[in-house]
Design the sequence.
């Protein structure tokens, strides 16, 4: 991985322009990494554009990130970039309408920490041991002596804070704390950023959340807690899909469950799945088999079935994974 990191850094240093992209429906690490690298490059005098697949809707709790207001979508996104960098994107399929740009790029660099990454770039900087893709960019900047200004620091901090679950997940390593201390010294206002990221929700969302939580069911045999929502729920409460990213984090708090499942109708007829695990079950392997990806403890995919059919299938999949694992102490 180190040789690939060096090669990627050299490509970026010699580029006159770079197109940056992250996966569809981006989370904090995807947006934070992309925008953090954007600010690092532009501070070095390199022209950069950043975007993600349509619809270009930034979740409200990430709207404060410097640069989030000036993202580029199709058809304005470069059709055949000199250099294109994708971040936190495990497969080219997750680029949706930006995929043609990636395929036409003269050089495609992939920066990611998903073990399920398909190595679809010309240069692939993949480190599954990294807590966040933002941490890989932080390493690259420090190793190459690139300046991390306050805007870049804010974005990279967001990526690390969100993918470590506010520094609570087991990927919160000493390296994470050293990087965050460095970013804090640059000037990240941790208290207001943390409140914006994790503690600010519209009342409409809180009422919506109440409905989703009221639907939670416990499958005691499989140690699963399960819920769902559809377009009617979103419309009734006036909530948008980007606002709902954190719902799975409330569901996974059920003490009785080892696996949390949330099935979502993100658009009419489009069913998305979020799975979380305490670590005993590898939910990434379940999602990869269905065209998705992620990590052992957090993964997702788009289902071709309805909500309740998807739930039934995943109960079977989790049950099979538990049987394969065998009894735990």
Sequence:
């Amino acid at each position: 991985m180190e040789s690939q990191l060096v090669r990627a850094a050299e490509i970026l240093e010699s580029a006159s322009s770079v197109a940056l992209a992250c996966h569809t429906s981006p989370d904090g690490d995807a947006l934070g990494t992309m925008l953090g690298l954007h600010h690092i490059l532009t501070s070095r005098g390199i022209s950069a554009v950043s975007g993600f697949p349509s619809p270009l809707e930034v979740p409200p709790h990430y709207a404060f990130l410097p640069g989030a207001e000036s993202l580029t979508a199709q058809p304005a996104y470069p059709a055949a970039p000199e250099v294109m960098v994708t971040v936190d994107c495990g497969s080219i399929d997750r680029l949706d309408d930006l995929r043609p740009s990636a395929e036409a790029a003269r050089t495609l660099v992939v920066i990611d920490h998903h073990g399920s990454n398909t190595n679809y770039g010309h240069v692939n900087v993949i480190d599954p041991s990294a807590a966040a893709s933002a941490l890989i960019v932080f390493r690259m900047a420090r190793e190459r002596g690139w300046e991390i200004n306050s805007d870049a620091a804010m974005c990279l901090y967001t990526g690390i804070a969100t993918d470590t679950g506010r520094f609570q997940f087991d990927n919160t390593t000493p390296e994470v704390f050293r990087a965050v201390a460095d970013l804090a010294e640059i000037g990240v206002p941790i208290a207001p950023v943390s409140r914006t990221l994790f503690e600010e929700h519209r009342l409409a969302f809180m009422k919506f959340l109440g409905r989703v939580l009221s639907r939670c069911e416990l499958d005691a045999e499989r140690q699963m807690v399960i819920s769902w929502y559809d377009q009617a729920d979103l419309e009734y409460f006036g909530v948008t899909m980007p606002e709902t990213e954190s719902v799975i984090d409330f569901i996974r708090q059920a003490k009785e469950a080892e696996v949390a499942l949330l099935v979502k109708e993100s658009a009419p007829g489009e069913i998305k799945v979020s799975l979380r695990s305490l670590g005993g079950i590898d939910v990434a392997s379940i999602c990869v088999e269905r065209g998705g990806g992620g990590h052992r403890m957090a993964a997702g995919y788009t289902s071709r079935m309805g909500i309740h059919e998807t739930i039934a299938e995943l109960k079977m999949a989790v049950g099979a994974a538990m049987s394969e694992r065998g009894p735990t102490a």
In short: The first helix runs from residue 2 to 14. The two ends are 36 Å apart (CA to CA).
